[in-house]
Design a protein that fits this description.
Blueprint lengths: L1 H15 L8 E4 L2 E19 L4 E18 L7 E5 L3 E6 L4 E21 L3
Antiparallel strand pairs: 1-2, 2-6, 3-4, 3-5, 3-6
Length: 120
């Protein structure tokens, strides 16, 4: 199943790669953020998370749209959605391991911020 998901994501990336630009992921101590200005690109980022953590996600969309898919180590997708407006929400982390964040932007201007909230 995991191999199938990886193959589907790779196929999506090949089909959608109409640009040679990378998404400017900026790593910080608890996650990452992206500031984009009229960017059309597809990229991915990985982050190690532990079970019972939470992901705090904030998206600010000025124009265009962005797709975010979060893929757990098991291949499950705790989140998959498109952003066309401002959104703030949390995602519970159910399993420990490295998560894949697949991001696709189309003429996107705005910001995406993903932070890990560590459980006590």
């Amino acid at each position: 199943m995991r191999k199938l998901i990886v193959l589907v994501l790779l196929a999506m990336m090949v089909v959608s790669c109409s640009t040679d630009k990378d998404i400017p992921f900026v790593q910080n101590s608890n996650g990452f953020y992206i500031n984009a200005n009229n960017l059309s690109a597809t990229d991915e980022h990985r982050m190690y998370l532990e079970a019972d953590d939470k992901l705090s996600i904030s998206a600010e969309v000025e124009k265009g749209f962005m797709t975010l898919i979060v893929i757990a180590p098991s291949g499950e997708k705790p989140f998959e959605g498109n952003f066309t407006e401002v959104k703030n929400f949390e995602i519970p982390v159910d399993e420990t391991g490295t998560y894949l964040f697949y991001v696709k932007m189309n003429r996107f201007t705005g910001r995406l911020e993903v932070n890990r909230e560590i459980s006590n």
